[in-house]
Amino acid sequence: MLAIATYGERILGQAAQPVQLFDEPLAALAEKMLETMKLAQGVGIAAPQVGQGIRLFIMASHPNDRYPDAPLMAPQVVINPQILKRSGKMLAGEEGCLSLPGERVQILRHESIEVRYQDLSGEWQQEWLQGFVARIFQHEYDHLEGLTLRERLE
Ligand SMILES: O=C(NO)N[C@@H](Cc1ccccc1)C(=O)O
Ligand SMILES: [Zn+2]
Q1: Per-residue pLDDT tens for 55-100?
Q2: How high is the pLDDT of residue 154?
Q3: Contact yes or no for 136/59 (Cβ under 8 A)
Q4: 140 annotated active-site
Q5: Residue of minimum CA distance from atom 11 in ligand 1
Q6: Which of 54, 55, 119, 139 is least surrounded by Cβ atoms within 10 Å, i.e. has the fewest?
Q7: How far apart are CA 130 and CA 135, in angstroms?
C-alpha cells in the first residue's frame, strides 16, 4: 500500500506533468495505486495523492461501504486526460477525498462530460461519461490541476 498525501502537502497543490513513457514502471505504479485505493475503500485515486506529480489517475466506481449506490465499472487507468465538452447541466452530489479523511461535502459537477485520454498502452480513448462516473473523473482531473475539494467549496 502506498502512502496517501493529505491536504496541505505541496504536491496536492501543484499541476502534474504529462506522461511520456508508457513503460513497465508506469504499469507497476497504476497497479499499486489500484491496490492502495481498494484498501482505502476508494472509488478513484490520482497519482499526486501517492506523491507522483504525473497526469495519471484511476477511476473505479463500485458499490462499497463509503458509496453504497456507486455503479459498478471495470477499473480504468486514465492518462493525459482532456475534457472536450461539459454539459450545461450541473448536479450537486456528495464527495469524499482520500486526502481529506472523514470529510464528505456536497460538490457541484457537470452532469455529463466528453473526455479523451490514453490507456496504459498509450492508446487514445474518447467517450462520454455521466452521473457518478463523470463526477469521479472531474474530481480526479482536479487533482492533476492541483485542486482538491477544499478549493471547490468557495
Ligand atoms: O480522493 C479520491 N480520489 O482523488 N477518492 C475519492 C473519489 C471520489 C470522487 C468523487 C466522488 C466520490 C469519491 C473517494 O472517496 O474514493
Ligand atoms: Zn481526491
Answers
A1: 999 999 999 999 999 999 999 999 999 999 999 999 999 999 999 9
A2: 61
A3: yes
A4: yes
A5: 95
A6: 119
A7: 8
- Find the catalytic residue in 95, 111, 140, 154: 140
Give the binding-site residues of ligand 1, using a 6 Å CB cut-off.
42-46, 49, 66, 95-99, 135-136, 139-140, 143
The minimum-distance atom of ligand 1 relative to the CA of 37 is: 16
Does residue 116 carry a pLDDT above 90?
yes
Task: Check residue 153 and give its pLDDT.
Answer: 87
Nearest-CA residue for atom 16 of ligand 1 = 42
Contacts of 45 (CB under 8 A, 6+ apart): 4, 33, 34, 36, 37, 57, 58, 98, 140
For residue 14, which amino acid is it? Q
* Rounded distance from Cα 96 to ligand 2 centre (Å): 7
Q: What DSSP string runs through 67-125?
A: -TTPPP---EEEEEEEEEEE-S-EEEEEEE-TTSTT-EEEEEEESEEEEEEE-TTS-EE
**Do the strands 112-118 and 104-110 form a parallel or antiparallel pair, or are they unpaired?**
unpaired
Is the per-residue pLDDT at 138 higher than 90?
A: yes
Tell me the torsion sign for CA atoms 152, 72, 4, 113: negative
